[in-house]
Write a structure and sequence with these properties.
The chain has 427 residues and is mostly beta strands. The protein is 9% helix and 38% strand. The strands form six sheets. Strands 3, 4, 6, 7, 8, 11, 14, 17, 20, 23, 26, 29, 32 and 34 form a 14-stranded mixed beta sheet that branches. Strands 9-12-15-18-21-24-27-30-33-35-37 form an eleven-stranded parallel beta sheet, with no helix packed on it. The chain has an eight-stranded parallel beta sheet with strand order 10-13-16-19-22-25-28-31, with no helix packed on it.
Length: 427
């Protein structure tokens, strides 16, 4: 029998393999396509297809991206990429960019890439379900307004749902808005570039395992009916507050989150009483590198730790770790303040009869963590040593330089051993 395959395992008389893992991202007016590196050298080249027709010129098999400029005027659109040789062509799985409707009046499912240039309202009694891995783009100040049900569950860190609102708009106050009477799920989601990433208006929707960045306020809770669990989230690089709370009850629980690089980490106002931390595990929050970690004003009375509830947070911030401008006694026992010397606690009026003598270990790193310089919250697995780096950072911030140096040296040695082992296995 004739052998169709050469010594590299590639068929000499077959069409090439199809490109894999095609993705689409909307950037301004353009669609940016990307796919995995291509290694079937029997292919002559690659070609991008839009709505069944070739676009652009042939690409080298080394290409891994293509930009379709000024593309949004021709939505909806379906893209694929195919490889070709003298024996035929093989197409990637297609990816469809659909245009959202402004009013969702029947149960609807979004998947793939969804583009919106208008407010989208989910009517009362209606469910909008979002498939894991879906990317949703609002391009000019629009919001997703939920009067019914929004189920956005990415399922895992490898298939998060993206909500990208392009840029914060103070006029439209764009973002995901849960109105009174609505409900839903926010789990394994990335929410970026909104005025308020998530706004809960007198309703409770738990927010878990998600990343919220590039907003004015990452999360905004308003009125007594808004008291969610916020757990396992990375809330960072928001220009005002990571979490802004007005009239929020003590049943609002904030634990195992990483809240950093915001102006205020948590802003508690208007009689808010959230529970910040977790004494039972004990794993609180990593609240760091904000100008102020926790601000208490206008009769707010958050529980940051009283010996039986909350506490076990790592508080390492720039100007204040806690600032209390109310007349209330704000309890903040059993937290790490960046140092063991109370003179340098950066404490503005909280009570701390007992405090931790070292950074609280074991606070889980959120599954979606920012690992690069931009606002893209990526899978934490990209940097498996992130928890050790966070520990080194907190040791350095508390002036424990020798311990921080030891942690870093151990990481370097571990990486050297890993790379050496990998090289030996290849030889």
């Amino acid at each position: 029998m004739h052998n169709l395959y050469n010594t590299t395992g590639i068929c000499n008389t077959c069409p090439p393999y199809a490109p894999k893992n095609l993705k689409a991202t909307i950037v301004g007016q353009n669609v940016e396509l990307s796919w995995d590196s291509y290694t079937d050298y029997s292919a002559y080249g690659l070609q991008v297809v839009k709505n069944g027709s070739n676009i652009g010129s042939f690409l080298s098999i080394s290409a891994t991206s293509y930009s379709d400029n000024n593309a949004i005027s021709s939505f909806p659109a379906t893209y694929s990429v195919y490889a070709f040789n003298g024996y035929g062509s093989s197409y990637s799985s297609p990816i469809k960019i659909s245009v959202s409707q402004s009013n969702i009046s029947y149960n609807t499912t979004w998947s793939g890439v969804v583009y919106s240039n208008c407010n989208v309202t989910v009517n009362s009694g209606v469910r909008l379900a979002v498939v894991p891995g879906t990317n949703i783009y609002f391009v000019s100040g629009e919001s997703l307004i939920v009067n019914g049900i929004l189920n956005a569950n990415g399922g895992s860190a490898s298939t998060p749902i993206l909500f990208d609102f392009s840029s914060p708009n103070s006029s439209t106050q764009n973002g995901i808005v849960f109105q009174s009477g609505s409900s839903g799920t926010i789990n394994y989601c990335q929410i970026r570039n909104a005025y308020r990433g998530i706004y809960e208006n007198n309703t409770t929707v738990n927010i878990t395992n998600s990343a919220i960045s590039g907003c004015t306020d990452g999360i905004y809770l308003y009125n007594y009916g808004s008291h969610p669990l916020i757990q396992g989230c990375s809330i960072h690089n928001n220009s005002n507050s990571g979490i802004n709370m007005l009239y929020s009850l003590s049943s609002t629980v904030i634990k195992e989150d990483s809240i950093y690089n915001n102006y205020d980490g948590l802003y508690c106002s208007s009689s808010s009483q959230p529970t910040i931390g977790n004494i039972s595990t004990p794993h609180g929050n990593a609240i760091r590198n904000n100008d102020a970690g926790i601000i208490c004003c206008n009769n707010a009375n958050p529980m940051i730790g009283n010996g039986s509830t909350a506490g076990y947070n790592n508080l390492v911030n720039t100007t204040y770790n806690v600032l209390n401008t109310t007349g209330n006694a704000i309890y903040a026992y059993d937290n790490w303040w960046g140092t063991t010397n109370p003179t340098y606690f950066k404490n503005g009026g909280a009570l701390y009869t007992s405090f931790l003598l070292a950074p609280q270990p074991g606070i889980p790193i959120p599954p979606l963590s920012k690992t690069s310089g931009n606002y893209a919250a990526t899978v934490n697995g990209d940097i498996p040593m992130l928890s050790e780096l966070d520990n080194a950072y907190e040791l350095k911030a508390s002036n424990n330089l020798a311990q921080a140096r030891t942690v870093c040296l151990n990481l370097i040695r571990s990486e050297e051993r890993r790379v050496g082992k990998e090289c030996r296995s290849r030889w």
